[in-house]
C-alpha cells in the first residue's frame, strides 16, 4: 500500500516540455537556455582549444621523417600480390572472369614498375643489376632534399611480369603471385646465416639477397605443389639488399620495393593446395599470432574445367 | 521480514519495471491505499470483536471437557502428537517469503541487468551471423557476450548474497533463545520446547518465564504478568484464576502468549497456539501493512532510469546514425553493444550496496542495528520522529528527582552514573529523612554486587523502593548495614487502602532505648497523620502556614510530573514502649498519628542524560520530534519539557489560557507552538483536525495514547509528506513500525514482533542513538552522491570513443572488455572509498532532504559529470590515444576514415604516415596499445576525479587531502590494478592489454590536473557567490 505518491502524469510531462505559464521549454526559459548554451559554447570552445593545443604539442615532438617507435611494425610482414580474400586463390582455367580480379590486382600493382614510370634520373638511381650491399643515403631528414630510389625493372619478373603473358600464367593454370616485404622505414633486413637454411634455399645463396622459399604447408601436400619458379633480380629467389633501407614516404615518395615473382607451374588441380612462402633472414621473425610476419600462406584451388 | 527485504532489494535492481508499474498503477494504488486503510482499521476492530473466546468463563471441569485434558495428568503424548499434527507447531508463521529462486531471478533481471542481457544477446546474435559468414573475429563477440552474462550473474549473486545476509540478521534474532515450557503430559512434568505445545496442554509458569501460549489459568499464586508486549503498558498486572471481565483481553484468568510472568507461579491450560494466539493475530495484521519503498530505493530507481534512458537513447540514436551512414546492420548492432556497455556503470549498484552496508556496520557500532540496508539512508531523510517516552527518552527506572525538607526544594542528580548527590546534606532534617528513606524500605540489593556501580545493581523490590534504596546507598553507603544496626521489629507493607508503609526499628544508638517508627506514603495521607513538622532538625508544630508550604511544594513537584512521597517518623517514648514491647501490626498497638512530618521526595523516570542534547540536535537538523506515550499528560509534558521536545519558552493552548486567564476556546491556536494531546481527544478527532495539529504545532506530545493510535499518528505525519521514523517496543506497535518509513524497535525492551516489524533495532534503547543514525544516514546520502558522480564521469570517457569511432571512422580507441575492466576493476575500491568521506559541513544543521525535490542524482550532477568532467576526461584520454598512434607512425588526421581498411582482415599492407606497411595483426596490436593507453588515461584522470569528488562545495584543502585514508587506498588500488592489467596480463591476448611505454601513463596527467583545477574554481565560485547562476547550475 504505497502512500499516494505525487507522480508526474502526462499533463506534467507536456508541461515540462513547454510550460506556457512560465514560458519554459524543458524546464528553462529562453534566457536561461541562452545562458547555459553560451556557457557550454565557451566551455567547449576552450576545451577544443586546449585539445588542439595539446595535440600540436605532441606532434611537435614527432619527426616528420622518422617514426618515434617501430616496435609494432617490425619485424615486417611478407605480403603477396594480388591481395586475396581469405588467403585463397581460386579460379577456373577455362573462365577468364574467375581470375580477372587477380590479374587486375597484379596489373595495378606492377604499373609503378613500368619503365616509363622510372624514367626520371632525378628520382631514380641506377643501382647494380645484381644483388649488392645496402645503399645508405644519409640522415633521415630533408637537409639534402629528397633521396634517390633504385630502379626495379618489371622485366626481371620474366614470365610473371605480365609483359609477355598478360594473364600472369593464370590462363594456363600456372598462376603467378608477386611477393614483397612490407616497407619499414630504416629497416635493413639481414640475410640469414648459412647453417639455418633449408637445402633448397642454400643452393642459390647470395650474401646480398634475402631468400624467399615457397613450399607446401603440409609435408604430405609436397607433391601436389609441383615445381616452383622464382623470378627476381638476376635470377635470385629473394630481395636484394641495395633497395634497403627505406627512407620514408616524404624522402622517397617513388620508392620501389624489390619484388619476387613466384610461379607455380604444376599445381594439382581440383583440390585445395596450401602453400607457405617464407622469407629467411636474421632479423626476420615469425609469429603464431601474426600469419603475415615474415611469411604468408596461400591456398590454391584451381578448377581444370 | 524476508519478504520485506526482498522487496526492497529488488527495487534497487529492478528499476525499470517498477517504474512502469508505478506509473501505470498509480491511480489504482491510491485507490487501493484508501480502501486498504479502511479495510485494515476494520480488521483491527474486528480483531477485538472477533475474539469470541469464552474459555475464561468456563469452569475447570468444562475446560477439561472442552479440551479433553486433565488438569492433573495433562494430555497423553499420543493425543498431543495428534493435535500437534492438526494445528501445527506453536510458533508464529513467518511472513510469507518469496521463494529463493524467484528472489535470485529477480536480481538477474532488475536494474541494469536487463540492459546488459540485451547486450549479451546482441553479442551472440552478432557471433552467430559472423560465424556463419566465416569472419575470423566472430569469436570476440561470443566471448564478450559470455563476459556480459557473467557480469550480470555475478552482480546478481552479489546482490542476492547481500540480501540473504541481511535476512539472516533477523533469523538469528528469533532463533536466539529456544524457549522451553514446563508441562504436564501423561501425568508427568516434562520440559519441552515451546513449539511442541498444543491446545489442552497443562503448563506451569513461574516468575521470569515468557508465557509460551495463550493460557487459561487454573491455578495462580501471586502471579503478575507484564503485558507490555501486547498493550504497551508496562505496569505489572496480577493474574488469578477468577473470571473478572467479559472481555477476554481484560479478564484476569487468561495470560497471553509472549507476555512475561514477572513473579509468582501459575498453572494453566493452553487454549490457543501459534498464529491463533492474540499476538499471532496482531502479527498477521502487521504483515498486512504494506511496505513502503524506501527513499533511497526510489532514488536509485530514479538514477537507474536516468542512466538507462541515456544509454538507450544514445544507443538507438547512433544505431540509426550508423545505419544511415551505410554501416552494415550487423556492425551497427556491435556499435550498439559497445554503447550500452560504455553507458552502464556495471559496478555501481554493487558499490552502493557495499557503501550502505559499511554505513550499516558503522551504525551497528553506534547501537543502531539496521535490518535492511536501505533503511540506513531512510534514517537520514527522516523529518519526523515519533518517539516513545519510557525507556527511549527516559532511563526506564524511577529515580529520586527532588527533595523537600526544611521548607525548601532540593534537586537531586538523576543522571545515569551518579555517585554522589550535590544538594546540601548538613541539615538535621536530612539526617532524619535519610533514616526514614533507608529504613522504611523493603527493597534489597541482590547479594554479591559489591563491585558493580550502585546504579547498575540489581534490586529486588518495586520501582519506587528501588529508587529510594539506590538513592540512599549513593548518599549514605551500606544501606544494608544501617538496616542491620537498626533492627526492624515490625512492618506494615504498602497497600492501596492505607497508602502508606510503616516500620518500627531499634535505633543504632545504644544509649537511646527508644524505638523509631518510620512511615512513608502518599503525601496527603502522611500529612494527615502528622501534628508536627521537622524544620532544621527541630520539631515544630504543623500550623496552617507550614501546611500551606507543604501544599505548595507538593503541587510544584506534582506539576513536574513526578511521583511524590511523604515521609514522617516518630520516636516512641521509652516508657510506653519498653524493650520487650510486643508490636502487633494487625491490631496496630502503636501510634499512627501525631507523627512528625520530615519531608517529601519526588520520583521520576528521568530523561536519559544524552537525550536533551540529541533532541536539540534533531531540532537544528530540522527534524520534528513527537512524543507518543501511554503515560499521563502531566508526566509526559514534564519529560517533554525536560528533554526539550517542548522547548522552555513554548506554551500549549492550555498554558496560554491559564496565563491570560481566559477559556481555552478563546486562545488563538497559532500562538501555541506546543501541544499536548490526550489519547481521548485524539479518539474523537477527524483526520483533518489531526492534520491541522500536526501542521500548526511544532512541538507535540501525545499522551495516554493506545498503540493503535500510534498508527493513526504515523499516517497523519505521512500525509504531510514527511519521512517518519517511529520507535516502539510492544507487539501492538508493530503495525505502526511497519507503516513508518523507518520503524525502530528497542533492542532491550522490544518484543520480537516489534523487532520483526522494524527496519532498525536500537540496541541500547537510547534516543540519542537515533540521532547518530540520522547523521550517518545523511552522510551516506551525500557520499553516495559523490560515488555516483565519480562513477558516471568515466562513462562519458568510455562512450565518446564509440561515438567518434562511428562518426569519424577511426580505429577503435577502447574495447568493450577494457571498459568492463574499468567499471568492475579499477573503479570499484575508489568509489567505495568515498563512503568513508567525512561530512563537508555540519550536516546536522540543515533540514532533512525533501523526498521529491532533493534527488540523489539531480540534473546538475548528471550534467556536470557527463558534459563537463566527462568530456574533459574523454579528450585527455584521446590525447593519449592519438599520441600512441602518432608515435608509432599514424598521425592523427590519417586515422580519420581509416576504419574500414584498418579492420580489413585480408589487407596486410596498409601504409601509415611514413609509408610503412602494416599487417593486420600489427595494426590490431597497435589498437590494443591504444586501448591500454586510453584505459590508463581514464584511470589516471579518475584519480583526479576521485579527489575532486571528495567535496561538493568546499575546497579539497579545506576538507584535507589526507584525512580520508581509504581514498588513498582506493587510488593505490586503482593504479595497482592498472599496472597489473597492463604489465602483468599484457601478454594475455583475450584481455586486449599490452605492456605500455611508461611515458604514456603521464600523457593525460595535464588533463587530470586541469580537472582538479577546474573543479576547485567551480567550488570557489559556488562558495563565493551563493545563489548565483553558477551556484544553481554547478552545485550538485
UniProtKB/TrEMBL annotation, chain B:
Main location as per UniProt: membrane
One record GO biological process: intracellular potassium ion homeostasis
A molecular-function term among this protein's GO annotations: ATP hydrolysis activity
Cation-transporting P-type ATPase N-terminal domain sequence ranges: 54-128
Alphabetical list of Pfam families matching this protein: Cation_ATPase, Cation_ATPase_C, Cation_ATPase_N, E1-E2_ATPase, Hydrolase_3
Region (Disordered): 18-47
Subcellular location: Cell membrane; Membrane
Signal peptide: none
PROSITE patterns membership: ATPASE_E1_E2
GO CC terms in record: actin cytoskeleton; apical plasma membrane; cytosol
Stretches with biased composition (Basic and acidic residues): 18-36
Cytoplasm keyword on record: no
TM spans (from-to): 109-130, 142-161, 303-327, 333-356, 861-884, 967-986, 998-1014
Name the UniProt record assigns to this protein: Sodium/potassium-transporting ATPase subunit alpha
Gene: ATP12A
Amino acid at each position: 500500500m504505497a502512500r499516494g505518491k505525487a507522480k508526474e502524469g502526462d499533463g506534467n510531462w507536456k508541461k515540462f516540455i513547454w510550460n506556457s505559464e512560465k514560458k519554459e521549454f524543458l524546464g528553462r526559459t529562453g534566457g536561461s537556455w541562452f545562458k547555459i548554451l553560451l556557457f557550454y559554447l565557451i566551455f567547449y570552445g576552450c576545451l577544443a582549444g586546449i585539445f588542439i593545443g595539446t595535440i600540436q604539442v605532441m606532434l611537435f615532438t614527432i619527426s616528420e621523417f622518422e617514426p618515434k617507435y617501430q616496435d609494432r611494425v617490425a619485424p615486417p610482414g611478407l605480403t603477396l600480390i594480388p591481395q586475396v580474400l581469405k588467403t585463397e586463390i581460386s579460379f577456373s582455367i577455362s573462365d577468364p572472369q574467375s581470375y580477372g580480379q587477380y590479374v587486375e590486382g597484379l596489373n595495378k600493382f606492377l604499373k609503378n614498375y613500368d619503365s616509363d614510370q622510372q624514367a626520371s634520373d632525378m628520382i631514380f638511381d641506377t643501382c647494380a643489376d645484381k644483388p649488392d650491399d645496402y645503399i645508405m643515403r644519409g640522415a633521415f631528414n630533408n637537409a639534402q632534399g629528397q633521396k634517390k630510389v633504385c630502379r626495379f625493372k618489371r622485366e626481371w619478373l620474366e614470365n610473371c611480369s605480365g609483359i609477355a603473358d598478360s594473364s600472369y600464367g593464370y590462363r594456363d593454370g600456372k598462376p603467378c603471385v608477386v611477393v614483397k616485404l612490407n616497407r619499414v622505414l630504416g629497416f635493413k633486413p639481414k640475410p640469414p646465416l648459412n647453417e639455418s637454411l633449408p637445402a633448397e634455399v642454400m643452393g642459390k645463396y647470395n650474401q646480398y639477397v634475402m631468400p624467399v622459399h615457397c613450399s607446401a604447408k603440409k609435408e604430405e601436400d609436397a607433391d601436389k605443389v609441383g615445381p616452383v619458379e622464382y623470378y627476381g633480380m638476376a635470377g635470385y629467389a629473394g630481395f636484394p639488399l641495395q633497395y634497403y633501407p627505406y627512407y620514408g614516404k616524404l624522402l622517397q615518395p617513388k620508392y620501389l620495393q624489390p619484388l619476387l615473382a613466384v610461379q607455380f607451374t604444376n599445381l594439382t588441380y581440383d583440390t585445395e593446395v596450401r602453400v607457405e612462402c617464407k622469407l629467411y633472414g636474421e632479423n626476420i621473425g615469425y609469429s603464431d599470432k601474426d600469419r603475415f610476419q615474415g611469411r604468408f600462406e596461400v591456398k590454391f584451388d584451381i578448377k581444370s574445367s | 521480514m524476508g519478504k520485506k527485504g526482498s522487496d526492497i532489494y529488488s527495487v534497487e535492481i529492478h528499476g525499470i519495471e517498477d517504474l512502469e508499474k508505478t506509473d501505470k498503477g498509480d491511480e489504482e494504488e491510491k485507490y487501493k491505499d484508501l480502501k486498504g486503510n479502511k479495510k485494515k482499521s476494520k480488521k483491527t476492530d474486528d480483531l477485538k470483536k472477533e475474539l469470541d473466546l469464552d474459555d475464561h468463563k468456563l469452569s475447570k471441569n468444562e475446560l477439561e471437557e472442552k479440551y479433553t485434558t486433565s488438569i492433573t495428568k495433562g494430555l497423553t503424548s499420543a493425543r498431543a502428537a495428534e493435535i500437534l499434527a492438526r494445528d501445527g507447531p506453536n510458533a508464529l508463521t513467518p511472513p510469507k517469503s518469496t521463494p529463493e529462486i524467484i528472489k535470485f531471478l529477480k536480481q538477474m533481471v532488475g536494474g541494469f541487468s536487463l540492459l546488459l542481457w540485451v547486450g549479451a544477446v546482441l553479442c551472440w546474435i552478432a557471433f552467430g551471423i559472423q560465424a556463419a559468414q566465416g569472419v575470423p573475429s566472430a569469436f570476440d563477440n561470443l566471448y564478450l557476450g559470455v563476459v556480459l552474462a557473467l557480469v550480470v550473474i555475478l552482480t546478481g549473486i552479489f546482490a542476492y548474497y547481500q540480501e540473504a545476509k541481511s535476512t539472516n540478521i533477523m533469523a538469528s534474532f528469533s532463533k536466539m533463545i529456544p524457549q522451553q515450557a514446563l508441562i504436564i503430559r501423561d501425568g508427568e512434568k516434562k520440559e519441552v520446547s515451546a513449539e511442541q505445545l498444543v491446545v489442552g496442554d497443562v503448563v506451569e509458569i513461574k516468575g521470569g518465564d515468557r508465557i509460551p501460549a495463550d493460557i487459561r489459568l487454573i491455578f495462580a499464586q501471586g502471579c503478575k504478568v507484564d503485558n507490555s508486549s501486547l498493550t504497551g503498558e508496562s505496569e505489572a498486572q496480577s493474574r488469578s484464576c477468577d473470571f473478572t471481565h467479559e472481555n477476554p483481553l481484560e479478564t484476569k484468568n487468561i495470560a497471553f502468549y509472549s507476555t512475561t510472568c514477572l513473579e509468582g507461579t501459575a498453572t494453566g491450560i493452553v487454549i490457543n497456539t501459534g498464529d491463533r494466539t492474540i499476538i499471532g493475530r496482531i502479527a498477521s495484521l502487521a504483515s498486512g501493512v504494506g511496505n513502503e519503498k524506501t527513499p533511497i530505493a526510489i532514488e536509485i530507481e530514479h538514477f537507474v532510469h536516468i542512466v538507462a534512458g541515456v544509454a538507450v537513447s544514445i544507443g538507438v540514436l547512433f544505431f540509426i546514425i550508423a545505419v544511415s551512414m551505410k554501416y552494415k546492420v550487423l556492425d551497427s548492432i556491435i556499435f550498439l553493444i559497445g554503447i550500452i556497455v560504455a553507458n552502464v556503470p556495471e559496478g555501481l549498484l554493487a558499490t552502493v550496496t557495499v557503501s550502505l552496508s559499511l554505513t550499516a556496520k558503522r551504525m551497528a557500532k553506534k547501537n543502531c542495528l539496521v535490518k535492511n540496508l536501505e533503511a540506513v539512508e531512510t534514517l537520514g531523510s527522516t523529518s519526523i520522529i515519533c518517539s516513545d517516552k519510557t525507556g527511549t527518552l527516559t532511563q526506564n527506572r524511577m529515580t529520586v528527582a527532588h527533595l523537600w525538607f526544611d521548607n525548601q526544594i532540593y534537586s537531586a542528580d538523576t543522571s545515569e552514573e551518579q555517585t554522589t548527590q550535590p544538594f546540601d546534606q548538613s541539615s538535621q532534617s536530612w539526617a532524619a529523612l535519610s533514616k526514614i528513606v533507608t529504613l522504611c524500605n523493603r527493597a534489597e540489593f541482590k547479594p554479591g554486587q559489591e563491585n558493580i556501580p550502585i546504579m547498575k545493581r540489581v534490586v529486588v523490590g518495586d520501582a519506587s523502593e528501588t529508587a529510594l534504596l539506590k538513592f540512599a546507598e549513593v548518599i549514605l553507603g551500606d544501606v544494608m548495614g544501617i538496616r542491620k544496626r537498626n533492627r526492624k521489629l515490625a512492618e506494615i507493607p504498602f497497600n492501596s487502602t492505607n497508602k502508606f508503609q510503616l516500620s518500627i526499628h531499634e535505633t543504632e544508638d545504644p544509649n537511646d532505648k527508644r524505638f523509631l517508627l518510620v512511615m512513608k506514603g502518599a503525601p496527603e495521607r502522611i500529612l494527615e497523620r502528622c501534628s508536627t513538622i521537622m524544620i532544621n532538625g527541630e520539631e515544630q508544630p504543623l500550623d496552617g502556614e507550614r501546611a500551606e508550604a507543604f501544599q505548595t511544594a507538593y503541587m510544584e513537584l506534582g506539576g513536574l510530573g513526578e511521583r511524590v512521597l511523604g515521609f514522617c517518623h516518630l520516636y516512641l517514648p521509652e516508657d510506653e514502649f519498653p524493650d520487650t514491647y510486643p508490636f502487633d501490626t494487625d491490631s496496630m498497638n502503636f501510634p499512627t498519628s501525631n507523627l512528625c512530618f520530615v519531608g517529601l521526595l519526588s520520583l521520576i523516570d528521568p530523561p536519559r542524560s544524552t537525550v536533551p542534547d540529541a533532541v536539540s540536535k534533531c531540532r537544528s537538523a530540522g527534524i520534528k520530534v513527537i512524543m507518543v506515550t501511554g503515560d499521563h499528560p502531566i508526566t509526559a509534558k514534564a519529560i517533554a519539557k525536560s528533554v526539550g521536545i517542548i522547548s522552555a519558552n513554548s506554551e500549549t493552548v492550555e498554558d496560554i489560557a491559564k496565563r491570560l486567564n481566559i477559556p481555552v476556546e478563546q486562545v488563538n491556536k497559532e500562538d501555541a507552538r506546543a501541544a499536548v494531546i490526550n489519547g481521548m481527544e485524539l479518539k474523537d478527532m477527524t483526520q483533518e483536525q489531526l492534520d491541522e495539529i500536526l501542521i500548526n504545532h511544532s512541538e507535540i506530545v501525545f499522551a495516554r495514547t493506545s498503540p493503535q493510535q500510534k498508527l493513526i499518528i504515523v499516517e497523519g505525519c505521512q500525509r504531510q509528506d514527511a519521512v517518519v521514523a517511529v520507535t516502539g517496543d510492544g507487539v501492538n506497535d508493530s503495525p505502526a513500525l511497519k507503516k513508518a518509513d523507518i520503524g525502530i524497535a528497542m533492542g532491550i525492551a522490544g518484543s520480537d514482533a516489534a523487532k520483526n516489524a522494524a527496519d532498525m533495532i536500537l540496541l541500547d534503547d537510547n534516543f540519542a542513538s537515533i540521532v547518530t543514525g540520522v547523521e550517518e544516514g545523511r552522510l551516506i546520502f551525500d557520499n553516495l552522491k559523490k560515488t555516483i558522480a565519480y562513477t558516471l564521469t568515466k562513462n562519458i570517457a568510455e562512450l565518446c570513443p564509440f561515438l567518434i569511432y562511428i562518426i569519424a571512422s577511426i580505429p577503435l580507441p577502447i574495447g568493450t572488455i577494457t571498459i568492463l575492466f574499468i567499471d568492475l576493476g579499477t573503479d570499484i575500491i575508489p568509489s567505495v572509498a568515498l563512503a568513508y568521506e567525512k561530512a563537508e559541513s555540519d550536516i546536522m544543521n540543515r533540514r532533512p532532504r525533501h523526498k521529491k525535490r532533493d534527488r540523489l542524482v539531480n540534473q546538475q550532477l548528471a550534467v556536470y559529470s557527463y558534459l563537463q568532467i566527462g568530456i574533459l576526461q574523454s579528450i585527455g584520454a584521446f590525447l593519449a590515444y592519438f599520441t600512441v598512434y602518432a608515435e608509432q607512425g599514424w598521425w592523427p588526421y590519417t586515422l580519420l576514415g581509416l576504419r574500414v581498411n584498418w579492420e580489413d582482415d585480408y589487407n596486410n599492407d596498409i601504409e601509415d604516415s611514413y609509408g610503412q606497411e602494416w599487417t593486420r595483426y600489427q595494426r590490431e596490436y597497435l589498437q590494443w596499445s591504444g586501448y591500454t593507453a586510453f584505459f590508463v588515461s581514464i584511470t589516471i584522470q579518475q584519480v583526479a576525479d576521485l579527489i575532486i569528488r571528495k567535496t561538493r562545495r568546499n575546497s579539497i584543502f579545506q576538507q584535507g587531502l589526507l584525512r580520508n585514508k581509504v581514498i588513498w587506498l582506493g587510488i593505490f588500488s586503482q593504479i595497482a590494478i592498472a599496472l597489473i592489467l597492463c604489465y602483468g596480463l599484457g601478454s594475455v591476448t583475450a584481455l586486449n592489454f599490452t605492456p605500455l611505454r611508461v611515458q604514456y601513463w603521464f600523457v593525460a596527467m595535464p588533463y587530470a590536473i586541469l580537472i582538479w583545477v577546474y573543479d576547485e574554481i567551480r567550488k570557489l565560485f559556488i562558495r563565493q557567490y551563493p545563489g548565483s547562476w553558477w551556484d544553481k547550475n554547478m552545485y550538485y
